[in-house]
Design a protein that fits this description.
Length: 636
């Protein structure tokens, strides 16, 4: 019985496999050709129903014998000679019943069923990938990119300890450099690039630009990469200059596709973008209207005023607020004139005393006209109503009106005037927001004051967030000089937000100020992780040429008695990581310039020099139809 059980189990597996190979509808007829050996037993074996064979296999041939005739699987007719048998020329006895007869009948059925199968229809191959005319990456740069992408999912190893650079933080910088120099992405790395962009939204603009048309082609083959199509469909359509396709995508596309489309059309033709939006404006959802309205910042001009003025009557308060903000950046708009008139009734020059002062009388109510023009009537918790309304009026008024109101004085002179009745902080904060909204560097410069002045006693606002926004309106060189002076005067504890808006790589004076402040913090015995944010910025923003000068800071100093235990070793490790990161950034730059065995960086026109020869590590050419098989914030 044990033998029967074993054979029955094996037979069950064999029959199950055969059952999945063909459907009963494909069972061959009795006229199907068979080999002489297979036709020898006669039709009885194959006329046994398949279900009967399955039942016998499941229950066992002892409990459910096969029901056969005098020939076939259950007959005793002589069998053909078996190759390799011990008695050549003699017929081996044919199995009459039991597991062997079951297996033989199943084999005959299986052969007939498989012979009747129709060939499967092959899948339609995808259309060939479009060409990408950009030059390939130099070999060293391609290997560097593969290393960065392979390391992006590696465990951090316990945070920021260790002297090795954080390669994950260098991916945005590498992509920005490669995009600026006009290289195309290697075909075999496109899947890894798209995976990285799917995981990190900050990488998406750079990845999509670098991946180019082949990246979009590949993204269409994988649902997990559809974000790339949603973000690029609009730009591709406007580039093709197909008005019908633009209109169709605008009316039928997904929300992300429509936002991208509106931005792309707006960048090419502001009037066409506004017309596109106006055509469906009344049918859009409130949250969608808000996002679409924000897209009008691109190319905003006086021609947009009628549309924005009509949006002031929108049923959504948020839409009205954004429309009012956009109109307030147009000094000649009717809303800007209305807000200027209201603000001038609240802020006046007072000459009754010994010198000129600023008198403030905040509004006593927020009427319907103010609300229509974007003034929010209910203040946040902890704010008084009148000061809240005053700030919104001054913020939306053109800054040019104050020069006339105060006798032609400059922004710096107006900000220096004393403000009566304790309204100075509120008035200056509103002027700060107005300078940021209207991108006025003269007022930003006046409200920032000298970098050596403590923020709490400066002419503008003490908020570091608002001061960083003011700083961002200045030219890059002036911005770096001001931040360097601030760090030198006040250290790094309050400088993080200010450093984040400075152009990179940092100019020499700013970089030296930051490094000197870090060195002072090390000498004071503080733990380096108190400055981890600034250290991370330094790794991404310092000029790589500073690496050699910083080498001296990597040594471990003797710790003073009052220093935190082990702080010296931690600082040495942090500076070694900083130096290693700067040198790695320098190597990345050389590789993308083609100075490490690759091709030279492509210029705006044809290469005037001779061809340097074949790339020692050329990009593999898989052909147009097989590319899919191979596969910030730019500076932090």
């Amino acid at each position: 019985m044990s033998g029967t059980t074993s054979i029955t189990s094996t037979t069950s597996i064999t029959l199950t496999t055969s059952t999945t190979s063909a459907s009963p509808a494909t069972t061959a007829s009795s006229s199907a050709p068979t080999s002489p050996a297979a036709s020898e037993p006669g039709p009885s074996a194959v006329t046994i129903p398949w279900e009967e064979l399955v039942t016998s296999a499941l229950l066992g041939t002892d409990r459910r014998p096969l029901r056969t005739g005098t020939t076939g699987a259950g007959s005793s007719a002589p069998r053909p000679p078996t190759p390799g048998s011990s008695a050549p020329g003699l017929s081996a006895p044919r199995p009459t019943d039991g597991p062997a007869a079951l297996l033989e009948a199943a084999a005959l059925h299986t052969v007939r069923r498989r012979a009747a199968l129709l060939p499967s229809v092959g899948a339609t191959p995808p259309v060939p990938a479009p060409p990408d005319p950009r030059p390939p990456l130099p070999g060293a740069a391609r290997r560097r990119l593969a290393h960065l992408l392979a390391d992006r999912s590696a465990p951090s190893g316990g945070g920021r300890r260790g002297a090795a650079p954080d390669l994950t933080e260098l991916i945005p910088q590498w992509l920005a450099l490669a995009g600026e120099r006009g290289f195309r992405a290697p075909a075999e790395l496109l899947p890894a690039l798209l995976d990285a962009a799917r995981a990190r939204t900050d990488l998406r603009p750079y990845v999509l630009s670098f991946a180019g048309p082949r990246g979009l082609w590949l993204a269409a083959l994988n649902p997990e990469w559809r974000f790339a199509l949603r973000a690029s469909n609009g730009a591709r359509l406007t580039a093709a200059d197909d008005p019908d396709a633009v209109r169709r995508l605008w009316e039928e596309g997904l929300f992300a596709e429509r936002v991208a489309l509106l931005g792309a059309v707006r960048a090419q033709d502001p009037s066409a973008g506004r017309t596109l939006l106006a055509g469906t404006w009344s049918a859009e959802r409130a949250e969608d209207r808000l996002m679409f309205l924000d897209a009008l910042r691109e190319g905003l001009g006086d021609a947009d005023e009628p549309f924005l003025e009509a949006a002031l009557s929108d049923r959504s308060r948020n839409v009205r607020s954004v429309a009012a903000e956009l109109l307030s950046t147009l000094p000649a708009s009717a809303l800007a004139r209305r807000m200027a008139s209201r603000a001038l009734t609240c802020v006046n020059a007072d000459r009754t005393g010994e010198g000129l002062t600023v008198a403030v009388e905040a509004p006593h109510e927020c009427d319907a006209g103010m609300q229509r023009d974007g003034v929010t009537p209910v203040p946040p918790s902890g704010r008084g109503e009148r000061s809240w309304w005053l700030g919104q009026l001054v913020e939306a008024a053109p800054l040019t009106v104050w020069r006339e109101r105060f006798g032609g004085r400059t922004a710096q002179e107006i900000v220096a005037l004393p403000v009566a009745d304790g309204w100075e902080a509120e008035l200056h904060a509103a002027w700060c927001r107005a300078a940021v909204r209207q991108r006025d560097p003269a007022w930003a410069r006046a409200l920032l004051g000298a970098p050596s002045i403590p923020p709490a006693s400066g002419p503008g606002t003490a908020s570091l967030s608002e001061r960083s926004q003011l700083l961002a309106t200045l030219p890059p060189a002036e911005r770096a000089d001001w931040a360097a002076g601030f760090v030198a005067a006040h250290g790094l504890s309050e400088a993080f937000q200010l450093l984040g808006v400075c152009a990179v790589p940092w100019a020499g004076p700013l970089g030296r100020s930051v490094v000197d402040a870090l060195d002072i913090a090390r000498d004071a015995g503080s733990y380096p992780w108190s400055f981890s944010g600034v250290m991370g910025l330094a790794e991404r923003c310092l000029d790589p040429a500073e690496a050699d000068r910083l080498e001296v800071l990597t040594t471990t100093q003797d710790e003073p008695e009052d220093a935190s235990p082990g702080a010296g070793g931690y600082w040495s490790e942090a500076f070694r990581r900083l130096v290693a990161t700067l040198r790695l950034r320098a190597a990345m730059d050389r590789e993308l310039m083609g100075n490490d065995g690759g091709r030279p960086s492509p210029g705006p026109g044809p290469d005037p020099g001779p061809d340097p020869g074949p790339d020692p590590d050329p990009e593999p050419d898989h052909g147009e139809t097989t590319r899919h098989q191979a596969g910030p914030d730019a500076w932090g």
